[in-house]
Amino acid sequence: MQFAIDDDFKVTGHAEDVQSTFVKIDSYFKTSLTEAKMNGRVGVVHAFMIAAVNKALDDGVQIYNNTIENLSIKTPRIRMFEKYLFIDA
Q1: How many Å apart are CA 13 and CA 40, to the nearest integer?
Q2: CA-based torsion, 39, 83, 65, 60: positive or negative
Q3: How far apart are alpha carbons 34 and 48 in whole angstroms?
Q4: So what's the pLDDT on residue 20?
């Protein structure tokens, strides 16, 4: 994934691949569905997941921070490290 952040703390970006894994299923009724079966079926919606993530990132995600007005912020920057986004200014 590629990310950018503008001076108003709006995150935009582009995803080329999205990975998802079912790790636990708690059902309210008896089922033969398992995590392995769900993980096998998730590939069917893979393209839809990428499209949904890219649509959200194209529109931009506003990061709300009630202290933004009170700070003297220079150019914000965004980094990704071990599945976390770090935003600093």
Answers
A1: 28
A2: negative
A3: 22
A4: 77
Name the helix (H) or strand (E) containing 39: helix 35-41
pLDDT surpassing 80 at residue 11: yes
Lookup result for tokens 């529109």:
59
Q: Comparing C-alpha atoms, which of 78, 85, 55 is closest to residue 4?
A: 78
pTM exceeds 0.70 for this model: no
Q: Taking the CA atoms of 60, 64, 68 and 73 in sequence, report the sign of the dihedral they define.
A: negative
Question: CB burial class (10 A; 0-12, 13-18, 19+) of residue 12?
Answer: middle
**Cα–Cα distance, 32 to 56 (Å, whole number):** 34
